[in-house]
Every structure is written in C-alpha cells, then in structure tokens.
Amino acid sequence: MKTYLGAELFFESLYHLGIRTIFGLPGGYVLKVYDVLPAYSKKINHILTRHEQAATHMADGFARASSLPGIVLCTSGPAATNTVTGITTAYMDSVPVLIFTGQVPVPFLGSDAFQEADHIGITRSCTKHNNLVRKTIDLPKAIAEAYHISTTGRKGPVLVDMPKDVLISEAEFKMPNKIRLPSYENDPILQKKDFKAFISLLKSSEKPLLVFGRGSCDMSNVKNIRRILNRFKIPSLTSLMSLGVLGNSKSNFGMIGDDGSFASSELIKNADLIISIGCDLNKIIPEVSLADKKLVVVNIDKTQFNYFRKDNLNIYTNSKFFLDSFQDAKDEFQFKWDKAYLSNLHTKNSEEKSNIIRTNKKALIFDTLSSLLKDKAIVCSDFSYEDMSLQQFFKFTDYRNSVLAGGSGTPGYGFPAAIGASFSRPRSKIVSISSGVNFQFSMQEMIVAKEQGIDLSIIVLNESNKKQQQKAPDYKLMGESFGVKSFKIKTDSNIRKNLSKYLNHKGLRLIEIAV
Amino acid sequence: MRHILSILVDNEPGVLARIAGLFTARGFNIESLSVAETEKPSLSKITLVTSGDDWIIDQIVKRFENMINVIRVRDFSSADSIERELLVARVVPTKGTRPEVLRIADIFKSNVIDVGPKSYTLELTGDKDKLEAFVDILKPLGLKEITRTGLISLPREKKK
Predict the structure, then answer these.
(1) What is the mean pLDDT of chain A?
(2) Closest chain B residue to A148 measured between Cα atoms?
C-alpha cells in the first residue's frame, strides 16, 4: 500500500471531501503542510492571509455566501488563539467552518512548549466539536468526521488539532466509507403526530405569524417557502440572520427584533399563533413580549425548546422536512388577517424607513447603495449593536447575499468576509461596508485582496468629526499605500451620482464616505 | 431542585472537561461526581449531582445531548432509582471510646478495613442520609478524615 505523509493526507482528505479553497497562514508546526502544498496547488487553492482572525472571517464569509464550508489552516499558539474571535462569530451564527491548527508533537503536549496553547480547551465552548488527532492513520477519519459534524444538523465550526509528529509521519490513506457517530442525530425526521398537532393548532388560529430564522436558510427550502407564502398568505418575518430568505414575497413584513421593522411588533401584538422555524429565539429580543402567545418552535437543536414556557409546541426536526410537509398540506385554512390592515403595514414600514433615512445619514448611505446595487450584490458588513439594524435597509432576495456577523457583532468582520465571499461566488458583485473604526480591525487584509486581484468595493464610513478626540486615519491614503484605487466622497446631494460612478469601476477599490 | 444525572459518554480524554465546562458556564456547582468505565470499555458513565432551576437543568441536559461524545443522558431525580455511595472514614477514638466506635460501626453494618494502634478505618455504603448520619455520630468520637466516592445511581426495574 502507498503511504503518505500526514501533511499529504491532510490535502488528500480535503480534496476527497470536495474542498478546493482554504484560507491560511504558515507557521512552525504546520510547515510540513506548507512544504507539500506546491504539489497540491492544482487541486487546492490556498489564500495567504495576513492575520488568522481574518482567515477565519474569510472562511466564514466564504461559507455564508455559498452552501460550502469554509476552511482555515494555521499554526499553534498565537495563531490558534487569534482564530477564536472568528470561531465564536461562526458559532453564534451557525456557520460551517473547519479550523485546522498545528500543535506541538504529542509527547510534548502540556509542557508549555514553544508556541503551545491548549486549543481544545480554549475552543471547547465556541466550537460545535473539536478533536485532537494523535495518530497519522487517524487523520483522514478525523477530517471526514469534522466535515460531517460541521455541515449537518445545526451547522457550526469544528476545530481539528494536528500535532507536528502526526503531520511528519507516514500512513496509508484510509477514508471511512461511512461516518459512524452513534449519538449524533443530524437529520431528525418530522414526527407525524407533531405535524398533526401543528395543523390542528393552525386550524384553530385566526391570526398566525411565521418567523423564519437561519435554520430555514437552505437552497432546498427556498422553493417550499415561496409556495407556503403563496398558498397560505400568512404574514412572515425573518430574523437578522435570514434576511432575504423570503425572496420577493408580499408576505414579507421585515425583520423581527427590537431593531426590527415597524410591522414586526404590530404583527406580534396582533398574532395569536407564532410559528418559529429554525430561529434562535434566545438571541432575539422582540419589542413586544411573546409571553402570552401560543408558540410553535420548529428546530433541529433541542436547546431551543422550552426556553420561555412549557406549553409551546416543540417540533424537533430538520426545517426541510417541516417546510416540505407544510407546503404539501392538504388542509384549507381560514385566517382572519385583514387585507387592508396588512397593506397598511407595508406602507407604514416604508414610511418608517424613510423617516429613519431622513435623520440617519448611515441609513441614507445604505438605502442609496441598495437602490444602486438592486438585489444582486453580496453585502458584507460589520456594525456595532446600535447600527446592526441598518442591514435591513438593503433589499435582499437571496439570504446568501446578506453577510453579517449577527450573534457576535464582531468588529472587523465585514471586509475579510467579503474577500472570502469573492472566492465562493466569484461572479457576483461584492460590497464590503464598515465604519472606519471597525475597518481598522482588519484593514491589513487589503494586501490580500490586492494580491488575489479581487473585484470588490470596500466602503468605509468615516464618522469622525472635529469635535471628537478620536483621530481617524486618512482611509484614502491608507488604501493607496496598499496599492488600492481609493476615492473620497461626502454625504451630500451628489452621493448617488458619485457612488454609482465608483461602484461601476472594475477591480479593487476603496470608497471613503465622510458621514 | 436536586438532580441526579447519569451520562453515558465515550471513554476518551477531554470528555469530562466538556461536561464540567457546561456547569462552569452556567455558574452551577457540581455537588458530587463519579466517573468510571462501564461494561463496555469504550464507554464511561458519569453520575453527577447538582441543583438548580429545572429549566436551566433542562437546558444543560439538552446541551449534553448535543455533544458528539455524549451517548445518552438520564435524569433520575423524578424517576424511582437506587442511590449508593461509599464512604471511608478514619477515626482516632478519644480515651475510652474505642469500643463505642466499633459498636456504632456494627449498628451501621460498617466494616473495619484497617486498624492501627491509634485509629480505625471504616467503610460504609448507603444513600446520602445514612452516610451523613454515620458521620454525625462519629464526630464526637474522634472522626479525623473522611472520603466519599460520590453518588452512583441506577433506575429500579419498572413494575408491571
């Protein structure tokens, strides 16, 4: 039998699993992997980043903009600890990311060796699973399991720790045909009695309301969701993490949450049954309390059940089974939503939006961008908590186009995520939009974008003014020093014209907007 | 409320830390803990006693179930179950109480597992109340040190 180095097994396994792009940075204990990389350069595209946190965000953006998992490779110690923010971001928003870290050789584990850190211990609470590989022969199996765990069920980041001696020893390439994880239930089917209970609840309901979360965001669900909305005309909301999943539907009343749309709190107030599909209700603080509402919670993660009350109808299943049965339901329903009331809500929604745009310059910029880009562009952004709601000023008709660090609200996420997205969706128009302060968290990655020749608009909102002590760098000069075409514009009556001009440039460009 | 959780896990390094980590994250104390291999060497059973709000314990149990290394979780607090714990106590009797210590041991059906010129070492199995009663009685008689294994538990056979 042919034997391979552990480092070669790493690439063989990734290639076998269909992975073609990885983001990473070399270092001591993974040098062997980088030694063999040239031999695999035709099979696997390695993107050299300048910071491990950015590498993790890139993999995260890569995954959110597509249906593929993002891959990170880095060394031990400081490199691995740098990835923690990125891992937490992916964990909070259930994004499939695989992180491969180098580690000191097995005999030296726990000896405080050079660049050693306890990666497994550090990332235990921010990964879906993590694993230390102790033998070279086990490496392909560990990678296959990590891939499986990360991309099924409630998705999430998985870390695989690879000690140096595992990478430099030889073994056969043995990929398991089938993943056996006896306790891991990744695809719970819909129980008939649960669905019956749901239908009878829906029949007795006069004013039901659907709330779609990240868990409903799957390409295979899009058609079913459209059909459900067309057939039953139930008013629907999305969470921040699933903007766009409802497409162009008239039943879309915007986003739920205390930063959500005007209609969302109105609808919750009036609804008598709220059906949450794949939505993490723990992270959403609705303006109107859900306390006296009848709730149906459809989720693949049992921890989402019984959180508020015991009398919810909890349906433990994959959202795809639920939506598939729902769109195919034979029953007819009589709901009592008033048509005039609902269309009035749409008007109120847009009125409220234009009110905010009048007073909030950032909202104006978002709105202008949205009307220029239509619904075709991938929008990657990172904002502080108060500005997070700005994402809803974009019109999204595809959930993969909204790339935003939701649960973590990570500063410096948007720009590297945009670089990542450009590798999974190279033909799409991509815009990264950050405040100046947040952009400074990861601006070093401009050199990566430059190196890779990415077509990307980096929009930086410079919010500093003379009254504030905080000094802002000149982002235009900064961009130019990285060799990036840079422009500076003001938020005035010409903003639309200027933005449209610069957005139509090809290649990498930085647009600084003074707010 | 007091909960007894019986958790069947993969017998691998780091699994116990995963379980314990969830308690740390919630600020819960583990009152007692015992871990050992089961009839299958690839599996371990963790018996854990804790107390807290039912809904938080419910969340913790669900999080355990989400872990890849956790095979099964059972909450014995509401079920009819048998509980046992082993206690080893060293007693250095005060003057004239040597016979009394042995009499108490006899009443509790405790065995003397070691004896020295100054001390007795006693073992006792039973449930929590029995062990605590034993300790209370020995205290004035020169109890120096005790070690307890932590509670282990199995559900009773279901009555038909």
Answers:
(1) 90
(2) B68
Using a CB–CB cut-off of 8 Å, the residues of A that contact B are: 120-121, 124-125, 129, 132, 149, 154, 181-184, 301-303, 305-307
| Cα A141 versus chain centre, distance | 27
Give the C-alpha separation, A342 to A336, whole Å: 11
What percent of chain A clears pLDDT 70, i.e. is strictly above it?
96
Task: Please tell me which of the candidates A129, A132, A183 has its beta carbon nearest to residue B71.
Answer: A183
Residue A40's pLDDT is 94
**What is the per-residue pLDDT across B53-70, written as a single tens digit (0 to 9) for each?**
888 888 888 889 989 999
B160 vs A445, higher pLDDT: A445
Angle between helices A495-503 and A361-373 (to 10 degrees): 50
Q: Show residues of chain A in contact with B44, CB under 8 Å.
A: none
ipTM computed for the complex: 0.80
pLDDT for residue A307 is more than 60: no
- Res A308 pLDDT > 70: no
| Domain tally, chain B | 2
**B68/A149 Cβ within 8 A:** yes
Kindly indicate whether the domain formed by A192-343 is annotated with CATH number 1.20.140.10: no
CATH number, residue B115? 3.30.70.1150
Q: Say if strands B152-155 and B81-91 run parallel, antiparallel, or are unpaired.
A: antiparallel
Name the residue among A402, A377, A413 with its Cα closest to residue A55: A413
d(Cα A139, Cα A135) in Å, to the nearest integer?
7
CA distance B38 to chain A (A): 17
Measured CA to CA, the distance from residue A424 to residue A19 in angstroms comes to 11
Give which of B73, B49, B64 is closest to B1, Cα–Cα: B49
Span A486-491, average pLDDT: 89
| pLDDT given at position A38 | 95
Domain-embedded: residue B127: yes
* Class of domain A3-172 as given by CATH: alpha beta
